Amino acid sequence: MTEAPVVAAVDGSEHSLRALEWARTAAERHGAPLVVVHVLPDHTQWYAGRREALGSAAPEPADPVRAFLGPDVLAGVLRYEALMGSVPEALRGAGRGARMLVMGSRGRGGFTALLLGSNSRAVATTAPCPVVVVPHDARSAPAPGSGAGERQVVLGLHAAETDDAVVDFAFTEAAARRGTALRVLSAYAVPPSPLLVVGGPYAVVSPDLMAEALSDEDRAPAEREMLRSQEQRLRPFRERYPDVPVEVATVPGDAAGALVQDSEEAGLIVVGRHHRRLGRSLLMGSVANAVLTHAACPVAVVPAQEGD
């Protein structure tokens, strides 16, 4: 197979098994192969290194995750790889050439109250491919009732700065879900207000609070201009994906609060890793950080195309 694979990162935790199931479904939607990877724990890597250095005849170190998953779970998987090195570094390597890399929001070593694990954040910040972070049970929205269709894909769009690769990923995901709507959400600038001052680098301001701070006169011109910019930016993608229903929405201020609110009903939130003004630095914008931390559904963090 030459099709770019969907890569699922697992560590044997319930959080990673949720990610594996999401990755399996994504691979089926796209007709792509599924690759499952696991980064061996430090003690296993140390044992393997000592064994190799000493030329020992001791048995190969066992991979606990392969045994935990078993043949039934791994049926239909193109390959399973046990990786060496630090988790972020190893998964960055596994993501080269992948359609996407899927992982849980918190691994086996995460604290119970942690919203987003350090490895998930590090991989989403630096991987060369789109990274889908699947939230753990405590953050997940309830599953749709029987007879409900696919949940919509939501794209956080900055009309002037979001890379084409981000927009194309969102349209591709909506198209793969056959008939699922793509909701495109953009934020327009608002004048500073003391009502909107919040603490913390990844805090989320609700759209209702933002709207309360604005008069109709403040809102209307900026909203109309954003809708115009949205339409212009989306036109070539609508032509390329004519079967994808698109709905557009605008909110005042930062889009993070509205995206987190939408995540309660969405199947996937798609955001760019960084704005163009941040250059090629290994940074995520505040919207991506906030959505990764608080969203109730899977979040795809998409890097810019090489050369942009």
TrEMBL record:
Residues of the UspA domain: 6-45, 96-135, 152-303
Q: Signal sequence span per UniProt?
A: none
Matching Pfam families, A to Z?
Usp (PF00582)
Please tell me the species this chain comes from. Answer: Streptomyces bambusae
Family per record? Belongs to the universal stress protein A family.
Superkingdom of origin:
Bacteria
For this protein, the record's InterPro entries field holds: Rossmann-like_a/b/a_fold, Universal_stress_UspA, UspA
Protein name as it appears in the record: Universal stress protein
**SUPFAM superfamilies according to UniProt:** Adenine nucleotide alpha hydrolases-like
The lineage is: Bacteria, Bacillati, Actinomycetota, Actinomycetes, Kitasatosporales
User: Which chain positions lie within coiled-coil regions?
Assistant: none
Tell me the CDD domains matching this sequence.
USP-like
